[in-house]
Amino acid sequence: MEMHRLDPRTSVPEALRAVLSRIRPVERTELLAVPTAAGRVAAEDVTSRVPVPAFPCSHVDGYAVRTRDLKGVSATRPVNLRMVGAIHAGECFPRALAAGETVAIATGAPVPHGADAVEMFENVDATGRSIQFSLNVVPGENVDPAGGDLASGTRIVTQGTPLTPALIGLLSLAGYGQVRVYARPVVGVLSSGNELRPPGPEPLPYGKVFEANSAALSALIEPNGGVPKVLPPVRDVASVLERALRRALAASDMVVVSGGSSVGERDLLHTVLPRVGTVLFHGVKVRPGMPTIAAESGGKVILGMPGHPASCLSNALWLLVPAVRKLSHLPGDGTSRVRVRMARDTPLHGHGFSTVVPLRIQGETARSTFHGSHFITSLHPANGYAILPPAKRHLRQGESIYARRALFLGGA
Fold first, then answer.
1. What pTM, to 2 d.p., does this model score?
2. Mean pLDDT within 317-321
3. What mean pLDDT comes out for the span 266-270?
4. In whole angstroms, what is the distance from residue 409 CA to residue 383 CA?
5. 68-107 burial, b for 16+ CB within 10 Å, e for fewer?
6. Of the residues 73, 134, 182, 249, which has the maximum number of CB atoms within 10 A of its CB?
7. Beta bridge partner(s), residue 279
8. Hey, how many other C-beta atoms are within 10 angstroms of the C-beta on 5?
9. How many percent of the chain have pLDDT more than 70?
10. How far apart, in whole angstroms, are the C-alpha atoms of residue 23 and residue 296?
C-alpha cells in the first residue's frame, strides 16, 4: 500500500479566503408567493404600492370624537356626546361627524371624516347613546394617519436583503402577492470509497460501512440556503471519480466530495482534480480535517472533505457553510459570536495546527463534545464550535473563549 506525503501549508483563514474569493453568488431568480418566501433573498428592490395604513384608522377600540367638542373636559367637568353609530373594521361611516356626536369604533376601522381622535372605551361612561368623557383628548390621539407606517412608493425591500417574517408581512400589506428572489444554489454532494454502501434494510457486508457523510452534509447545506443534490457514491477509480465530478459540476453550482482527500493509495482527489480544474490548496493546518482539498473549475468551486464523519463535518462548519451562504446571497457564516467559559478541562490535539472544537453551549458556559475525528457522536450534542490557534494546547476549566453559536446545528 502506497502513501503520498501531505505537507499542509494553508491556514484556516487562508483556506476560507481562497474559497470565498472564487464563489460567485447565483444570479438565477424566481417568482415566489410571498408567504412562501421567508428566508429567501430579494432579487430586486420593492416599493410599496399603497400607503400603510391606506386611511386614518383607530388603533384602539373606543369612540371617535372631534377634540374641539371636548375642549376643557376634566373629571370635574365631564362632557356628554351623542353616539350616532358604530364602525367595525372594513366598514365606513357614511358622513362626517357633526358637533356633539361620537361613534363607537373598532381597532383598524377608518376614522370618520370630521373626527380627529379616538378615546379608549375604558375611559368613558356609557349610558345608552349618551357617552360621557372626563379625560382630555388631543388631536391625533389613538389614530394612525394614512401612510403613517409606510408612504406609497417607499422602498420596503432592497435587493440582496433576506426576507424576514416582518418583511413578508410588510410585502403583503403593501399589496404584493409575489416577490422575486434569487434561486437557491444547487450543491452537488458526492462521496467516494469502495467501502461505502447506501443506508437501507439490506444486511451490511463485513468490512463495508453505510454512507453517512452525504446526508450529514446535505443537512448543513439545506438550512444555509442551498439545495443539496446527493449523487451515488463512486468507487476509488480515478476515471470513475473524474466522470462523476464532471457530471456533478454540470448539474450544480458547487460540488462537495467526502472521502478521497487524504494520503492513502486510493485517495484520488489530488490526482483527479487537476484534470478537472485548478487546485487551490491541498491540506489545511487544522485538526480534525487536515487533508481538505479545494479546486475551481469553470467558475465553480469543488471542496474535498475527509471521509471520517467528524472531520468531514468539522471542516464543513467553517468552510462549506460560508461558501454555500455566499452562493445563496446570505450574509455571514450563519453563526453568532459569543463569549463562553469552559465547564471543564479540555486537552487539544492540534500539535501546531489550529483546532476545531465542537461545543455544547448553555448560557455563558460551554463544554467540548469532541472524542475522536472518526466519531460522528462528537458533533451530535454540539450547537456551536470554536477554532483555536495553533499555539493553544489546552483549555482550562473556567477559561473564557470566543465561540460561534450555530442555530443550524440544532439545540438550544
1. 0.87
2. 96
3. 74
4. 5
5. ebbeebeeeeebebebbbebeeeeebeeebeeebbbbbbe
6. 182
7. 295
8. 6
9. 95
10. 9
How far is Cα of residue 144 from the mean position of the Cα atoms in its chain? Answer: 33
> What's the fold here for domain 57-144?
Molybdopterin biosynthesis moeA protein; domain 3 (2.170.190)
| pLDDT single digits (tens) 132-163 | 999 999 999 999 999 998 999 999 999 999 99
**Residue ranges per structural domain of the chain:** 12-28+184-327, 29-52+148-182, 57-144, 335-409
Pairing mode, strands 143-144 and 117-120: unpaired
- For cell 403613517, the residue is 148
**How far lies 83's CA from each of 61, 132, 280, in Å?**
14, 10, 78
Give the Cα separation of 240 and 232 in Å (integer). 12
Residue 259: per-residue pLDDT: 82
What single DSSP character describes residue 148? S
Which is the CATH superfamily of the domain at 335-409? MoeA, C-terminal, domain IV (2.40.340.10)
Which residues lie below 8 Å from residue 405, measured CB to CB, with a gap of 6+?
335, 336, 337, 338, 361, 383, 384
Q: Which amino acid is at 195?
A: E
39, three cell numbers = 428566508
Question: Percentage of the chain with pLDDT > 90?
Answer: 74
Mean pLDDT, residues 299-326 taken together: 93
- Burial (CB count within 10 angstroms: exposed 0-12, middle 13-18, buried 19+), residue 42: buried
Instruction: Tell me the three state secondary structure of residue 242.
Output: helix
Report the CATH fold assignment for 12-28+184-327. Answer: Molybdenum Cofactor Biosythetic Enzyme; Chain A (3.40.980)
- Architecture in CATH of 29-52+148-182: Alpha-Beta Complex (3.90)
pLDDT band at residue 65 under the 50/70/90 scheme? very high
Phi, psi of 98 (to 5 degrees): -95, 170
Residue 262: count other Cβ atoms within 10 Å of its Cβ.
22
Residue 380 has phi, psi (to 5 degrees) of -55, -45
Name the grid cell of 366.
460551554
pLDDT for residue 412? 53
Residue 112, amino acid: P
